């Protein structure tokens, strides 16, 4: 489930779906039928996901490297919302950490599936 969540998040982000500069419908009232201005949408500054690495798992830890460029806050909120729901409905996530390359329990030299390590392409 985690791998599919990160894949979906990456696709939506790559397509510019988390651009907080273009929030036409969420910022409008619904007193009448919603109206989306495609020209306005096309003229906002693009905000896209740049790159994502492999999804790595060691025992009960997981990590993934991402390059989200200018750090679009809506992109991170979208991921956190999805992971919060997964944590609530399926498995309890103890901690979510952003940034940095070191995590106290992560073993950089562990590369064997027999030792509890696996890597998955996003």
TrEMBL record:
InterPro entries found in the cross-reference section: DUF3531
Pfam family, one: DUF3531
PANTHER family, per database record: OS02G0827600 PROTEIN (PTHR46737), OXIDOREDUCTASE_TRANSITION METAL ION-BINDING PROTEIN (DUF3531) (PTHR46737:SF3)
Protein name: Uncharacterized protein
Organism: Salix brachista
Lineage, highest ranks first: Eukaryota, Viridiplantae, Streptophyta, Embryophyta, Tracheophyta
């Amino acid at each position: 489930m985690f791998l599919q969540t990160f894949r979906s998040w990456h696709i939506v982000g790559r397509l510019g779906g988390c651009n907080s500069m273009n929030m036409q419908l969420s910022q409008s009232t619904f007193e009448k039928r919603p109206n989306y201005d495609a020209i306005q949408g096309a003229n906002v500054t693009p905000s896209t996901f740049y790159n994502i690495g492999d999804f790595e798992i060691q025992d009960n830890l997981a990590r993934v490297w991402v390059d989200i460029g200018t750090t679009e806050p809506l992109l991170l909120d979208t991921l956190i919302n999805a992971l919060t729901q997964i944590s609530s409905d399926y498995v309890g996530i103890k901690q979510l950490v952003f940034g940095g390359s070191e995590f106290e329990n992560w073993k950089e030299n562990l590369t064997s599936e027999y030792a509890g390590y696996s890597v998955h392409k996003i």
